[in-house]
C-alpha cells in the first residue's frame, strides 16, 4: 500500500495536466502530512555537483570582474599584511566596521585572482576564531584556491579535514584541482584525489571515479536513475538489484542530486528506511531538510524538521545557513525568523553574524516588520548574547540603503531595551546620519532621547549632517540645543563655523549674521576670530557694510582686532567717504587709529585709481594725519600734476 501511494504521488507530479500534488492516503502520519503541500512549479534540473563560477576554467573568455564590495575589499586589505596578531586583526576589523560572516567569507573566496596566501590567512584565522561560520561551500572554495594554485600538500590535508566534518568535495572543486595537478605532472596526487572524491559519495572507495568500469559513482548512478524516471516498481526493483550499500555519504549525495525535486527526495528518504536498507542519521535528516528548505512553500519543511528533532537529531550549522539563505533570498522573512528561533532552541545555535544578517534583512525588507525584529532580538538576548556597536552600525547601513533612516530611533530603542548602550562614537555616527539621511524631527528626537549621555562629538556630527544637507533650520536648532546642554563656552568654535559656512555656501551671509548675533547677544557664545573674519568678508562681498560693521563691534567686544584685510579692499574699491569715516571711528577703542592704518588705506585708494575719494577722505582726517611726512610723500609720489597741488592745499 505504501509503495502504491508513492507511485501515485509521482505519477501525479509528472502529469502535465496536474501541476500540484493531490492529497495522498495515509501511509504514515508524518509522511502524509509532508506530502500534502503543493509541489513547486517544474524547474530546470541543475547539473549534479555544480559549483559557482569561481571554479571555471582559466581558458574561459575574459570578463571584467565586478568590483568587490567595501567590506570584502577591506577584509582582503587587512589580511594582505603578513604576521599580524589576532588582536591587531580584530582591531583593524573594528576600525573598518567589518563584520566577518559566512556570506562575506564566500564573497572573499570568490574574488577573482585572489592571492592564495591572503586566502589562506583569512581561512586559517576564521577557522581558529569563528569556525562555525565556515560551511561546506567555504571549504570547497578554499581547496579550489589551494589546488588551483598548486598547493598539493595543503589541499589534501584540507580535504581530510572536510571528510572528518562530513563535508563532500564538489565537482567544480575536483575538476579545478585535478586539472592543475595533472598540468604539474602530479599523477600520483591525481589518483589520490580521485579516491578522495569518490569516498565523498560512496563507501566503495576504489571503484567509480578511481577507476571502476562505469566511471560514475554509485551516488550519481542512483540519483540520476531516480531523477530521470517516474517512481514505480521498476525503480524500486532496479535500486534493489544495484546491490548498493546505502551508506550515509551515498544517501546524502543522492538527496543532493534530487535537490531540484523535493518530492522525489522525500519519497527516496522514506523508501530506503521503510525498505530496511538504511537507518537515517543526523546527516541524512539534515540533507533532506536542506532540500525541503528550497521550496517556496515551507509547510513540509517545518513538519519535517519537527520530526527530525523528535527523532533526536539536531539541525546542523550547514543546514541552518543554507535554508536561512534560501528563505531570505525569497523574502520569506517570517520563515527565516522562525528558523532562527528553531535553531536557537537547539544545540547548534546561530552565531552573532547570523543574527546581524537576519536583522539587516528585516530592516531592509519591503515593509519593516517590528514584530519579527523584536522576536530575533529577544531570542538573541535569551541565548546570553549582547548587542554591540558593530551590529547597530550594520543595521544603520541597511536602513540607509533603503531610504529608511527615519526608523533608526525605533531600532535603537529596542536594542537599548535589550540592554545595549551605544558608545559615544556610535552616537556620533548616528547623529550625523540621522541629520543627513533622515528628517529634522527624527534627528532632534534622537538628541532629546540621548540628551543625558551625548558629549561634544555627537552634537558636532548632528550639526555637520544638517549642514551637508543644507538643512540650516535643523542645524540652527541643534546648535541652540547644544548651547543649552553643554554651555556657551563649548559651542563658539566648530558648530558656529559649520553653520556660518553652510549659510555662506548658499550665499546667505545675512542669515549667518543674524544667527551669530543672536547667539552672541542672547546666549553668550564667543565665536572664533577666523569665523568673524569669514563672515565679514562674505557680508562685504554682498555690500552689507552696516552688518559687517556690527560684526566688527562684536569682535571688539571679544577682544579681537578689526578685519582690515576685508574692510580696506572694500572701502578702496566700493566704499564711500562716509563709509571710511564710520569704519575709522569704530575700528578701535582709541581716539583714532595709528598712522600705518591710514597709509594702508590711502595706498589702497590710490592703487584702485580713486584719487578723488582718497583726497576726500584725507580732508576728514585729523591734523596729525594730514601733516604726517609719510602721508605727504605717498600722495606726492602717486598723485600727478594738479592733484599734487590739491593734496598740498589739503595739508595746508
Task: Report what the structure shows.
The structure is a single chain. Among the domains are: about 1-35 and about 215-275, no CATH class; about 65-215, Serine Threonine Protein Phosphatase 5, Tetratricopeptide repeat, CATH 1.25.40; about 420-485, no CATH class. The protein has about 650 residues and is mainly α. Helix 7 (about 135-150) packs antiparallel against helix 8 (about 150-165) and helix 25 (about 455-470) runs antiparallel to helix 26. The protein is elongated, with a radius of gyration of 39 Å. About 40% of the residues are buried. It starts with a helix and ends with a helix. About 65% of the residues lie in helices and about 0% in strands. It has helices at about 1-15, 30-35, 70-80, 85-95, 100-110, 115-130, 135-150, 150-165, 170-185, 185-200, 220-230, 235-240, 250-255, 260-275, 280-290, 300-310, 315-330, 335-345, 350-365, 370-380, 390-400, 410-415, 425-435, 440-450, 455-470, 470-485, 495-505, 510-525, 530-540, 545-555, 565-575, 575-585, 595-605, 610-620, 625, 630-640, 640-650. It contains 37 helices and no strands.
